[in-house]
Amino acid sequence: MEYEKMINDMLHHLVERFNSYGQLVAINRHNNHDEGILEWNRGNRCAYEEEAIDLARKLGRKVDYEMKEEKIMKDTPNEYTVEYRIMKISY
Prior knowledge:
alpha+beta, two-stranded antiparallel sheet
């Protein structure tokens, strides 16, 4: 039982990291960051995605995606909205 919880926690962590990098890439794009920064963050996002998909499949879980819209710098004069893809795991 302890092992199963550890594996589920690991999968959850991979999904959180993928979603965080998705948000970061969207912010980078909005702020017209250097292409090198975008590529670095896309590469990290891709690596987390591959690991999460692989682990989810091994556990018999389904990977789903949806678009998320989020306000950045809320309630400030510089507020803006980004949209990015997030991953969800079906148990």
